[in-house]
Specification:
5-stranded parallel beta sheet, 7 helices, alpha/beta, 54% helix, binds shikimate-3-phosphate
């Protein structure tokens, strides 16, 4: 099997769904943000704070290109990975791109307990989520498969992905 690449907004469930998929399919998970934190020895917050978002995006692209060379792995990406066409091209070379979706209110609920997402550290995160979702919608829609995660468990979502891949 080729790679399975999970995309989607922050809090759409990529990390938890990747774990379930890995269990179901016996595949390894590579998390792009974790790889970035390992290679730079910095947290995502620190990279944004000290070097800015444009530098983060450069490191993200380098990392996506590297991890996309693997075979038979699940790749969990950051919510902004779809914003550059070269990232999408790299991810698609050996994989199918699955986008997880959720409503803004659900995303707020899933992200509000942590402070590790620099783009959501604003006074009104719900407004920010709505704006970003709207402006990014055409990029997320470039995925091969879109999966709605509302009212589903990570296991149900993973099973739905397995079904879609078989088709
Ligand atoms: C980002 C999403 C984050 C992380 C960074 C930027 C984004 O990943 O890459 O904070 O632009 O949507 P998650 O989607 O895993 O939270």
């Amino acid at each position: 099997m080729g790679n399975i690449v999970l995309t989607g907004f922050m809090g759409s469930g990529k990390t938890v769904v990747a774990k379930q998929l890995a269990r179901l399919l016996g595949m390894k998970v590579i998390d792009v943000d974790t790889e970035i934190e390992k290679s730079t020895k910095m947290t995502i917050n620190t990279i944004f704070e000290h070097f800015g978002e444009p530098r983060f995006r450069e490191i993200e692209t380098e990392t996506i290109k590297q991890v996309s060379e693997n075979n038979n792995v699940i790749i969990s990406t950051g919510g902004g990975a779809v914003l550059k066409q070269e990232n999408i091209d790299a991810m698609r070379k050996k994989g199918i791109i699955i986008c997880l979706t959720a409503a803004p209110e659900t995303i707020l609920k899933r992200t509000k307990s942590t402070r590790d997402r620099p783009l959501l550290l604003v006074e009104n995160p719900l407004e920010r989520i709505k704006e970003l979702l709207e402006s990014r919608r055409p990029f997320y829609e470039k995925a091969d498969v879109m999966i709605d995660t509302e009212r589903k468990t990570p296991l149900q979502i993973a099973e739905e992905i397995v079904e879609k891949i078989k088709e």
